[in-house]
What we know:
This protein has 159 residues and is mainly alpha-helical. Helices cover 73% and strands 0% of the residues.
Amino acid sequence: MLVTCVARVRLLAMILWIACSLPVVTAAGENLSLIEQGNQQWAAGDLDQAAVSYRAAIGRDPKHVDAYMKLAGLHMARQEYRAGVETFQKAIGLEPNNANAFIGLAIGYLHMGNPALAQAALEEAVRIDPGRRATLEPLMARIQSGTSHPRVIDAPQQE
């Protein structure tokens, strides 16, 4: 049980790192401002307002990949895995060679109990960015061996 919790924490930390390390570069200063605002709200723990800011950035520019990535990362941090997967898929639709989006998608699929799709998404991330192979191989090996953690529901569990 403790190992499963530790694995979850590590996966969520990876997701947060991905979402927070993405560069925010845009020609539309308003969207940059909304994303910065969302980042500050997220850092302050106001996840609901951060989601509003990221959605507003998407509303102003429906092709703003970085806004989708931030929103997807936020969904994942909140353990809203289906919403996270759907949002990563939208980002991929706009930018098919986004390795970070495929990594996030894989983590979401893994949490939703679909290791085959998680494996496929990780393989696509490595195809796009071969430099990530060494980092992703341990997770890919765990998925292939069937030792990835069990299915997790979409809502945070109460203790």
